[in-house]
Amino acid sequence: MSSASVVAAFRKLLPKSLPPGLSTTPANLYQILSRYPADGVGQRVFQTRWTTKGIADCYWVITRTSLKQGGSHGKAWGRLVWRGL
């Protein structure tokens, strides 16, 4: 079974409107956080380049946000969890 057919089969299982965390639209951090309730407070976010470098279990837990211009700009604060610690 090719990977394209697996992806197509998986997409059939997903609802028509995807939850914010599964959106495939490229965006910056503030645009991503603006998709969530409370502007993303409590969400875990990570840099995609960390996975390509083999850095696992590293992410930021968002503790506070101040978004501007509909979520295209702003500030975000959080706590870094580095390799699970």
Give an overview in words.
The protein has 85 residues and is an alpha+beta fold. It has one domain. The protein is built from 3 helices and 3 strands; from the N terminus they run ααβαββ. A 3-stranded antiparallel sheet has the order 1-2-3. It is globular and about 45 Å long.
Keywords:
85 residues, alpha+beta, three-stranded antiparallel sheet, globular
List the SSEs and their pairings.
Elements (H helix, E strand, L loop, with lengths): L2 H11 L15 H6 L9 E2 L2 H5 L6 E10 L4 E9 L4
Antiparallel strand pairs: 1-2, 2-3
| Sheet with the most strands, sense and barrel status | 3 strands, antiparallel
Runs in which pLDDT lies below 50 for 5 or more consecutive residues are: none
Q: Helix count, per DSSP?
A: 3
Write down the domain tally.
Answer: 1
| Structural Rg | 15 Å
* Structure class: alpha+beta
Report the helical percentage: 25-40%
Order of strands across the main sheet: 1-2-3
Which outline best applies? globular
Mean pLDDT, rounded to whole units?
86
Number of strands: 3
Strand content: 15-25%
H/E series, N to C?
Answer: HHEHEE
| Cα distance spanning the termini | 39 Å
GO molecular function: structural constituent of ribosome
GO cellular component, one term: mitochondrion
Short summary of the structure?
By secondary structure, the protein is α+β, with helices and mostly antiparallel strands. The protein is built from 3 helices and 3 strands; from the N terminus they run H-H-E-H-E-E.
